[in-house]
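Researcher: I'd like a structural prediction for the single chain below. Treat it as a standalone chain; there are no partners to consider.
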Amino acid sequence: MGTTATSVEDIKRLREETGAGIMEAKRALTEAEGDHERAKKLLEQWGAASAAKRAGRTAAQGIVEPYIHLGGQIGVLVELDCETDFVARTDDFKTVAHEIAIQVAATNPKYLSKDEISQSELDELRAQYREAALKEGKPERIVDKIVEGRIGDYAKENVLLEQEYVRESGRRIKDLVQELTRKTGENIVVRRFVRFQVGL
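Model: Treating it as a single chain, here is the predicted structure.
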């Protein structure tokens, strides 16, 4: 009887942390033999796989979410799209759109996704990071790894979907979108954003 109570609590905890359904959470815990972290990783893998399947579906509904910060000094508009008007009107959908708008206000990202970084900018960054690593005396054999690591750090700082969520460390904006995709069963897409700041 105690085992059932624990497993129900485990399922509840996993659902709260991941937004997964009851059966999904139960299956993940069973496959992970009760290991909470392994179950979370399984859910992430399944979510990424099912999100990839949904990615081809048209997301032509959605909302434009406004956010004004600092007494009108910063304003943001974010377009978050989904497949149906029904999902666009849900509180979960509106909440994620609002959180993304707050993120944009707080971090001022340069890009929406990694694909938007031009090849010429990447080449320039690689050259800079390579030169810096060699100046720091890093061995030639590991310089390329260091450069790619720094490119990843650059993306985490400047690309909205790669950024760490300002309200919860260890969680990225793309994780919020994937969780919503899992929860709604629809293709969810951050289409675009714009940020205004007085005097800039």
